[in-house]
Amino acid sequence: MNDRSQMNKFSLWLLAWPIFIEVFLQTLLGTVDTLMVSRISDDAVAVVGFSNQLFNALTTLFITIAGGAGILIAQKLGSKRSEEARTIAIIAVKVSGMIGLALSVLLYLEPHFIARLLNLPERLLPLSDTYISIAGGGMVLTALMAALSTVIRNTGNTRGPMYTAVGINIVHVLLNYAFIFGAFGFPQWGLTGVSISTLVSRLLAVILLFYMFIHSFERKVGIADIRLKDRKLFKEVLRIGWPLGVNMSCWVFSQLAIYTFLAVLGTKELAARTYMNTLESFCFMLGYAFALAVQIQIAHLYGAKRTKEAYQSAYKALGIGLIVVSFNALLLFLLGKQLLGLFTDDKEIVAMGISLLALNFLLQPGKMLNMALGNALNAVGDTRYMMIISIVSMGIVATGCSYVLGIHLGWGLIGIYCCMIADEYVRGILILFRWKERKYLRKVEDGSPVNHLDAPRGGVRLEV
């Protein structure tokens, strides 16, 4: 592949639009999935929602590996070191699979203990035993999906994971329909059927992604490569990846704490925030797609030592993202009453939601600032800085101040939402100043290696 076609492959729009379609359809079909599960019972929805929060928290364990590997793969491809990129990809998939397998065994064998440990209500325990043991038993498939999708996406092929995600989500919804309503000659298996549907769709996804993975590099990946090791490259992955995992954990636990505060305020406040969370996801997903795309693009440019282009790419993605999310926030505000009416007839909840939609004008630009420039810092390997400011801001501003304003001072839902907005801007402004420093970019311009573990290598050292 010549340099021109390689760079076209890593252009912002070509990377972004498949990511957007993938995220949009996953969100849309996820909403449909939730509505279908609600036909079983409200308890079933509660169990699925609770279990998915648990699964999301556990995914941070292998996202650490997949996230760090993805950034390094794009960097290595940019610096024409495709063999190292290939080695990193194989190691990432292998290690992620091993972590996922350990989690699968734990969730399959001890669903009751885990549910009790997390204080799930007694009446939900029988349903949770079923769902956590079956769907959670497939965490190895989730780990492989995350690793394979990340690896493939960071080679510049964002269409492959998009097609796979669309296909398996359609299969999942169809199987849910069959197992919940007894369609197509299937029995009505209820929540057990939903669990099986989840496993089958994930298995199909892994098979498709493995096929793409095998052909993602100049040299085809073979069975013998499973024995491939390289301690130095794995240290690079961990150096970038573990702060990503901590960063994601901060967000997961801060959101969990905020939902706990909302539960203290009452069910209506909790419901209003839940509905807003769904609407917001549609609001910022196109901006999120550009943020993911620019991370891949900047990592590739950084590896190629094209630092000026890498620096400007972040601002280009930020500018486009700000226009998009601001327009979406306006549209959401104008249609807010009608959209909230699709979820609830409670006038008090709708009124709360509309007031939050007004504040959403402030939230979305801050969130976009974080996503675009935060991913830019991740792309050049500055993940520890991101981790530190996330720990401080999410811990003090998002979580601590939410309790003080929302609960202690009695500002309620509005107070908590204002603290969430403040957290986005505190982190966003700190990230903006960090990116303007060009710290990692200047190191490359001064002749330093792309990352501190890089050194002249006559080839990829393999330990077999």
UniProtKB/TrEMBL annotation:
State the annotated membrane topology for this chain. Multi-pass membrane protein
List where in the cell it is found. Cell membrane
Query: Its principal location?
Result: membrane
Transmembrane parts of this sequence: 54-75, 87-110, 130-151, 163-184, 196-217, 237-262, 282-302, 314-336, 348-364, 385-405, 411-433
Q: Which InterPro entries is this protein grouped with? A: MATE_fam (IPR002528), MdtK-like (IPR048279), YsiQ (IPR047135)
Q: Which UniProt keywords are present, listed alphabetically?
A: Cell membrane, Membrane, Transmembrane, Transmembrane helix, Transport
Please verify whether the record's keywords include Membrane.
yes
Taxonomically, the superkingdom here is Bacteria
Pfam name, any one: MatE
- What is this protein called in UniProt? MATE family efflux transporter
